[in-house]
Amino acid sequence: MENFRKVRTLEEESPLPFPDLPPDVVEMKVKEGSKIRNLMNFAMAQMELKGRRQIVFSGCGRAVTKTITCVEIMKRKLGGLHQVTKVRYKTLLEVWENQDPLPGSGAQNLTVHKNVPSICILLSRDPLDPNQTGYQPPEPRHGLEPQLGQAGEDMSGSSSKGRRWDSRINQPSSLFLFFPHRMFRSLLSQRCP
């Protein structure tokens, strides 16, 4: 293989694994080199400005984690989205070209079939069948925010003592929501002699 160079990679086209999708559903094909900012700008415009009800994110190989990241960002920004996740394998065809062909040798190109993991995630504003495999209901809108009483006091029973403030999001740091200072220090001291 040291004399071969990868020329191109082709992805076998396969239908989306979701039945009854509208024909004009937007499919965001996430690639390894895709910029999350660009993907999210386009996807958010489709859902907010064009009023789409459903969108599909798909990615394979090393793009699977980026696909999941995009979905989580969209769920957090829009809220109230139903989700169905399907995992499968996809076949990639890699074409390799011989860089140092010997006279009279046979193969100039080599085609390799690779099976790579693939993920397809459907996000929908409309309710989906909760009995299908991979279904996730919408997350509560404000799960980590403290409950405020009539006078605006914190009714959740937890104090803000020992928490750090995250100025980027103007709320307590999420790490310190779960680990107040004393508990966090004791956890660190147990790990570090």
Provide structural commentary:
One of its GO terms (molecular function) is RNA binding. It comes from Amazona collaria. Helices cover 23% and strands 31% of the residues. By secondary structure, it is an alpha+beta fold. It folds into two domains: 4-136, Alba-like domain (Translation Initiation Factor IF3, 2-Layer Sandwich), CATH 3.30.110; 160-193, no CATH class. The strands form two sheets. Strands 1, 2, 3, 4, 5 and 6 form a six-stranded mixed β-sheet that branches. Strands 7-8 form a two-stranded antiparallel ribbon. Strand 2, helix 1 (36-49) and strand 3 (54-60) form a beta-alpha-beta unit. Helix 1 (36-49) crosses helix 2 (64-78). The protein is elongated. The chain starts with a strand and ends with a helix. Residues 173-193 have low confidence and may be disordered.
Summary?
It is found in: Nucleus. With 193 residues, this protein is of the alpha+beta class. Helices cover 23% and strands 31% of the residues.
